[in-house]
């Protein structure tokens, strides 16, 4: 029986974390895995911190991922990547957008956005692929496609077949957004993330 893989998807409300978890779940189901996907945890309204869990393998008993158990964290914003580091297992990897979205304490002037987050993560010896996902999403035609750009990076770094993923993505989004999301996935897949 194949060992269960644990993925955390983290971001802020409005970035499409739930869609990303559904796409990963769909792609893993298509490969024949048992899959569990969590509900959204956190402040799902635009701007609040949000996390979803995806677990897949031979037999998965629960959708929840405990601290120090995530094989991969996919972060749509770099401060969220840093915030969820305690969930990453030793030897785990992070795929993060290099995007910076100021949380409310920073917007209100009560705090400063931390400098050099990605550098600090890498200094801890963590394998961290930092991606200009917002720029790539804009190139694809929509800033809202950051999530699909990062899924492209995840699929490539995980060694998954590109066409399988594209099929799941195109079935998961409304037809009007298919072209943009297909291009966003391709751009992410082509990006090394290093």
Structure description:
This protein has 194 residues and is an alpha/beta fold. The chain has a single domain, classed as Pyruvate-ferredoxin oxidoreductase, PFOR, domain III (Pyruvate-ferredoxin Oxidoreductase, domain 3), CATH 3.40.920. Helices cover 39% and strands 23% of the residues. It contains 8 helices and 7 strands, in the order βαββββαβααβαααα. Strands 1, 2, 3, 4, 5, 6 and 7 form a 7-stranded mixed sheet that branches. A hairpin with a 6-residue loop joins strand 3 and strand 4. Helix 1 packs across helix 7 (162-172), helix 5 packs across helix 8 (178-190) and helix 6 crosses helix 8. The relative contact order is 0.16.
- How many domains comprise the coordinates? 1
Radius of gyration: 16 Å
CATH class annotation:
Alpha Beta
The oligomeric status of these chains comes to: single chain
Count of DSSP strands: 7
So how many helices? 8
Give, in order, the helices and strands. Answer: EHEEEEHEHHEHHHH
Q: How far apart lie the N and C ends?
A: 32 Å
Q: Identify the CATH homologous superfamily.
A: Pyruvate-ferredoxin oxidoreductase, PFOR, domain III
The major beta sheet can be summarized as: 7 strands, mixed
Q: Tell me, rounded to a whole number, the average pLDDT.
A: 93
What is the general shape?
globular
Helix content: 25-40%
Structural class: alpha/beta
Residue windows where pLDDT falls under 50 for at least 5 positions: none
CATH architecture: 3-Layer(aba) Sandwich
* CATH level-3 fold name: Pyruvate-ferredoxin Oxidoreductase, domain 3
Please state roughly what percent of the residues sit in beta strands, choosing from under 5%, 5-15%, 15-25%, 25-35%, 35-45% or over 45%. 15-25%
């Amino acid at each position: 029986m194949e060992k269960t893989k644990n993925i955390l998807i983290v971001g802020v409300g409005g970035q499409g974390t739930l869609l990303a978890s559904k796409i990963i779940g769909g792609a893993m189901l298509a490969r024949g895995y048992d899959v569990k996907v969590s509900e959204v945890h956190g402040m799902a309204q635009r701007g609040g911190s949000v996390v979803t869990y995806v677990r897949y393998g031979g037999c998965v008993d629960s959708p929840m991922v405990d601290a120090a158990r995530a094989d991969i964290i996919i972060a749509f914003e770099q401060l969220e990547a840093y915030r969820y580091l305690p969930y990453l297992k030793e030897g785990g990897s992070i795929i993060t957008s290099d995007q910076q979205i100021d949380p409310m304490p920073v917007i209100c002037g009560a705090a400063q956005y931390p400098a050099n987050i990605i550098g600090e993560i890498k200094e801890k010896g963590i394998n961290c692929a930092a991606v200009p996902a917002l720029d790539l999403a804009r190139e694809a035609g929509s800033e809202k496609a950051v999530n699909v750009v990062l899924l492209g990076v995840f699929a490539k770094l995980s060694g998954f077949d590109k066409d399988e993923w594209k099929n799941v993505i195109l079935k998961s989004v409304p037809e009007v957004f298919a072209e943009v999301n297909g291009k966003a996935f391709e751009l992410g897949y082509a990006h090394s993330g290093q």
